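Quick one: structure for this chain?
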Amino acid sequence: MSTKDWSVARVRELWSVYWTRGTAGRETPAELVSIMYAWWFVALVLKLLGGSWDISWHFWTIRDNLAPPHDLNTVGTAIAVALVLFHTYTGYGADRTTLRWMQWGTGLFLIAIPIDVVNHTVNGLDITTWSPSHSLLFIGTAGMLIGVALGWHRNAARGRWFVPGLLVLLAMIFEDFWFPNEQQEYGVLEIASWDANPGHPYANQELLKFASDQIHQPIGRAGIVHFSLPMPDWVYPVWGLGVCVLLFALGRQIVGRRWAATAIAGLYVGFRSVLWLVLTATTFPPSAVPFFLLGAGVAIDLVFLLPLSRWLRPFVGAIVVTAVAYGLLFAQSVLLAAPPRAVWAAPISAAVLAILWLAATAWTSRERARSRRPLDRSLNSIESVHRSS
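Got it. Here's what it folds into:
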């Protein structure tokens, strides 16, 4: 856009034209769709950066409500709230289902913030990403992201930015689902930092003392292990491969193009790799980057190339993806670094993935039929006119 397009007069003009009361699903000009969802991308990127920095921050020092990562996330949340209010009042850019996802997701996130503050005030340090108050934050963000992805899929123009935008949104949804697993990915390197330099890990002395006091022991490796890897070893693979990897398969079905799952995995692993470089360069605690997810994405795309029925594919795919991911996860643990994983949990991971993949296939089939109905009616009308002429 030119400078003129973003002048104060232009903003006032757009506001006077579009700030009118309407119901969800209102016909939205392409220009307004572009503006609204451009701001959604800004809001979500700020929240992504704030959240990613936040978990590293918590592996370095005691929590602070006004820490820079929280401030960055707050700015993104404020923009998101403003956008939800605009969608709700005007009815532009979101149908009823899309708007409900946005509203409930944003509302739950806002409710979770004071709950999390109270939790930390009462209990002090809450380092695990799996705590109830943190889970509410992730669930709320997930609802918000799903709403934005639905809105983009249903309203954005089918131009050159449609598929890339959809892939980015799907990668962001994956990041939100995967986020709790980062507890173990940061934790394994936190322990390694102690082993490499006992007494001087990534965590500062205040955090070390707090963690050691929780287990009533002097500062030492036991305290580091206590706050770094608090979850059982089966959680990482079952949640990561049984639940999160489903989003690669779902993304492949939604986008409908070859190598879409690989693209989503590549976007996420690429982001984590860049984040690792930035955190390392700024002396913040880094994490073990889950490179094995690239193999999971490729495996899913290859399964979609096999001549399988859509109802058989989830079962074959779950077995193949679990085997490939477990093998690559083991290789990464030997060659680089990776969280501990329970090998016995592999069948459970495969079973969970197969069930969820089957459910996702049923949902995408209905969604695809819904989106094609207007097109089918148009084609039938054109064909009738052609025959009559």
